[in-house]
Amino acid sequence: MVETSARAAPTGAPPSRGRQRPAPLPVRSGTGRSLVLLGAFICAACGLVYELELVAIATYLTGDSVTQTSVVLSVMVFAMGIGSLAAKRLRSRAAAGFGAIEAVLALVGGCSAMALYAVFVWTGGLGGAWSGGPRYLLVAFALLIGVLIGAEVPLLMVLIQRIRRQDAGGAVADLFAADYVGALIGGLAFPFLLLPLCGQLTGALVTGAVNALTGTALVFGLFRRDLSVRSRRGLIAVNAAVLGVLATGIVLVDDFEQAAREALYGPDVRAVVRTDEQEIVLTGGSNGSLDLYFDGRLQMSSRDERRYHDALVHPAMNGPHARVLILGGGDGLAAREVLRHPGVRRVDVVELDSGVVRLARTDAALSALNGHVYRDPRVHVIDGGAFRRLRGMDRTYDVVISDLPDPALTRSAKLYSQEFYGLASRLLAEEGRLVVHAGSADSRPRVFWTVETTVRAAGLRTTPYRVEGRLTRSAAAFESASGGSPAPHDWSFVLAGRTRPGLALDPSAPRPDSLTQAVLDAGARELGRTRVDGLRPSTLLHPRYGAGS
Asked: What domains are there in the chain, each with its CATH number?
């Protein structure tokens, strides 16, 4: 484990001669040692939960899991070394020092997720950027929590030697064993227990309360006679205040989330769905406008979605299109445009998050917007990740539509890799076409042209094109708050096939509502001016996308 392996070696030692002999313990030495090791076990579990909580909330706010994990872990490991050195000064007052450190750690770690989310909502969401205040706060929390965690083991070493002297190697082995096992339990409890049952905010607050209670119980249960009257009163007051703050947070967390949600999305929140994959929020409907968000990022706005889906679907449908595969697109809007073309016999929608499809089926406004496509017997939903499903498919398709999250998000990079497009090309019929939405060539030209290069590396011939977007103010605010580049004002696509496909609309289908041949031709010409040469394809082992690209 990164967190525990970086803990400094014990620096404590029993009080030297000349100091007052410590008071006897209220329990036998064997019981006392077991209780100290149990305390180390619980504190280690809480410490790892704090680490994972910071990584999770930062990834939720930015989507760039690799960067956030690297920042949090590297800063915390560095800070733990500082904390271990700083703990030397507390060896003579190990019990009081340990109690104070656990109280502060419980407060800081327990409130960290709520504080980060609040800063993101009420500063970043108002036009700031995640690269500013919230990211600095993330580093500050990682630094402070790391210092406090690093100070734990040296003080626990003093306390365990205070109970019964033993050789340093044996004491280190016992203490680190409890520490490592505690880290294992904390690491498993976070994704499998705390997140499903409590969520990110409540989970951190509950962990802080457990941390504070453990520190208080250990100090007052075993070493209260080592404390002066002043130290006892001070620790009681501090821990009572910390537990009061954490308990208040637990009670008010639902109200906090509601207020934060309204600050982010506005008062007209229509539906909130939390799944194993993400948080889905649907807003609007009363005024005829719907906005769909995944983990706080705008995915669809009814103000301009038709323009986007016209551009995504209709050029790819110019040719044979009896069998169509849609990767992503669980909202049903791409399928709606596909079904406008005569001759479509089957549409398979591969969607990782079944909650998106369920919302698109059951919400009256969203279902009306997608034309109730999931009632059409030609539409079939295939649950699961696109990469895994492509590997297991053996049927061929005339059209494959890739309507997937932004390639600059770390978790989506594999869906824009050479291997992924190789799997997709294997499913194309002889005259089949693949179309990929690849972000904005205006705001992220390197990302777009890397996608185009990667598609070509998979053996396909490409025809890039773009259309002007029409972002709403809420969409622009979310793009700014999520820490990406400036809000894009275009949508850019790569159309590909075994032979280079022409850029034209299907003459047999109804004319798209917001797209003409002249718009397509003009967009393709403008897109050529943004070309970035010399790029290399993105692969699973060498992804070439990033939030800063």
From this structure: 29-264 (1.20.1250), 303-528 (3.40.50.150)
